[in-house]
Automatic annotation (TrEMBL):
Belongs to the glycosyl hydrolase 43 family. This is Glycoside hydrolase 43 family protein. Residues 1-21 form the signal peptide. InterPro entries: ConA-like_dom_sf (IPR013320), GH43_C2 (IPR041542), Glyco_hydro_43 (IPR006710), Glyco_hydro_beta-prop_sf (IPR023296), Glycosyl_Hydrlase_43 (IPR051795). Keywords: Glycosidase, Hydrolase, Signal.
């Protein structure tokens, strides 16, 4: 009879039969074993910890706000968004898309997540501010998060507590160690500051597109293990691991995994002493998607994968084989709790704003049951307007539909649904001097003024219209098509398909985006009745 091992709480329905390293009968045919990718959506730079029998993860969301998401799982495969560490990371023109400035691809990068003496810690850094941030809380699900700022940028830093001391381990190619105060709120005066690995990439080659970075450190049975990634030129993203008996070294290193570019992340153990590496894979326009890699131990070294490969199917029963609340439909029925508090965290957690939102420009109570986006200023196009509300696109295919009431738009306003990245496309309504018109637009910006073109235009004789984007990420097809309906039932294509491209100026997977911008006068309002995903 086939058997499986109980992995943490992965087989919660079978817990009565499970004990430490127990073997149980194959679960009923209704059971679904988890598959890689475990999240087919953009969740890059994962940092994962386990506290008792619950796993927590932080990730990168760049310029989006609220930012630095916290997710939790009972089994490493079924993840739910708990919330975010901050509402906004910084103010100023870059963060508010003002005066021609922006923070696309900036914001918070590669976080580190820790639990130490009853308190949770998250570190991150931001290139557009040049600072490193350390947040901490007693309640990881609800916060609040205390915030400390260090006026120095520590690239891809991994926070580590050891023998009553606190450190950041960081760097690109050369890996460094810097000591913090014991409460991890500041650099320790005259504290340790050394280089612990020189040219960490060297074990993987000579020329690199990306030298060794993404440090994550753990301690196990007397050894310190540092996980890194590198990307050899004309090769693939490669997972590296170094070990030493002292945190300060000397370190020995080896290549840990070379398989389809699955790399960057750290090691995590389960309650029954099984081990995994939680990594991600660059997957075209959908973004960087997490994979869970079984790990065994041989002679004190972690061995990644099965015969050097990442399995497609895992011996973990998924309790909820879906994306949970990482992506979510919304009817925008929020009640009066939003009347006096426009904090973005009060929306469903799947939503994030493109840059810092203007609280005067959006509401879900001005017209109950609707998301209203009211223009507060004049903008040139999609990429430089505020209050664009986004959710991740997801694979292998995804579809988003909105109902839009355009009756309050003003001449020169454009509102609709976008496939958002530096190379974007949208279907929307432009209010012209002679009336509303359906349009499909494609555009792009690569650190230059936004360039866009209208690929199709259809006269609209009513104020309510239904808009839809269908995305196909199968086999890196990375194509979005655009649709409209006058009754929500019969659909017509509009414009041309968009060949989506993952670009570094935005440095994130594509997003479905709800937007409204004014080109002539502020004050126009777009009312979104619902947002539904399939």
């Amino acid at each position: 009879m086939n058997t499986i091992k109980c992995v943490g709480l992965a087989v919660a329905a079978l817990t009565s039969a499970c004990s430490h390293h127990a073997e149980v009968a194959t679960p009923p045919k209704t059971a679904v074993f988890a598959k890689n990718p475990i999240i087919w959506a953009d969740v890059p730079d994962p940092a994962v910890i386990r506290v008792d029998d619950t796993y927590y993860m932080s990730s990168t969301t760049m310029h989006m706000n609220p930012g630095l998401p916290i997710m939790q799982s009972p089994n490493l495969v079924d993840w739910e968004l708990s919330g975010y560490v901050y509402d906004t990371l910084s103010d100023g023109d870059q963060s508010t898309l003002s005066n021609g400035k922006q923070s696309y691809g900036q914001g918070s990068w590669a976080s580190s997540l820790r639990y130490h003496q009853g308190r949770y810690y998250v570190t991150t850094f931001a290139n557009h501010t040049g600072e490193t941030y350390i947040f901490s809380t007693d309640n990881i699900a609800k916060g609040p998060w205390a915030r400390a700022e260090i006026d120095e940028l520590f690239h891809d830093a991994s926070l580590f507590f050891d023998s009553g001391r606190a450190f950041l381990l960081y760097g690109n190619d050369d890996i460094h160690l810097v000591e913090l105060t014991a409460d991890a709120t500041a650099l320790k005066p005259n504290g340790l500051r050394i280089t612990i690995i020189e040219k960490a990439s060297a074990i993987a080659g000579e020329n690199f597109w990306v030298p060794a970075e993404g440090a994550q450190v753990i301690k196990k049975e007397g050894y310190y293990y540092i996980n890194l990634i590198s990307w050899p030129a004309n090769g693939m993203r490669t997972q590296l691991v170094y070990r030493a008996e002292q945190l300060t070294g000397p370190y020995q290193g080896r290549i840990a995994l070379q398989d389809r570019g699955i790399a960057q992340g750290g090691l995590i153990d389960t309650t029954d002493d099984q081990w995994f590496a939680f990594l991600f894979r660059d997957s075209g326009a959908v973004g960087r998607i997490p994979h869970l890699v079984p790990v065994s131990w041989r002679h004190g070294w972690p061995v990644y994968g099965i015969d050097g490969k990442v399995p497609d199917t895992l011996d973990i029963v998924s309790q909820r084989p879906a994306l949970g609340n990482i992506v979510e439909s919304d009817e925008f029925v929020y009640g009066q709790r939003m009347a006096t508090n426009h904090k973005p965290t009060l929306l469903k957690p799947a939503w994030q704003w493109n840059h810092n939102p203007d609280p005067q420009g959006w509401a879900v109570t001005e017209r109950p049951g609707y998301l209203t986006l009211t223009n507060q200023r004049i903008d040139q196009g999609l990429l430089d307007t505020r209050n664009t509300l986004t959710q991740r696109m997801f694979g292998p295919t995804s579809r988003a539909t909105v109902a839009l009431d355009t009756s309050q738009l003003r001449t020169g306003d454009t509102a609709g649904l976008a496939a958002l990245q530096a190379h974007y496309g949208f279907v929307g309504v432009e209010q012209t001097a002679t009336g509303p018109e359906l349009i499909m637009v494609s555009g792009q910006s690569n650190d230059t003024p936004e360039q866009k073109q209208v690929n199709d235009r259809v006269a609209l004789a009513q104020s309510i219209v239904y808009l839809q984007i269908r995305a196909d990420f199968r086999d890196l097809n990375d194509t979005a098509t655009f649709w409209y309906s006058l009754d929500g039932a019969d659909w017509s294509p509009i414009g041309t398909p968009l060949k989506m491209k993952y670009t570094l100026p935005h440095f994130m997977g594509y997003r479905f985006a709800l937007f409204n911008y004014a080109t002539q006068t502020p004050g126009g309002r777009a009312d979104f009745d619902f947002y539904r995903i399939e």
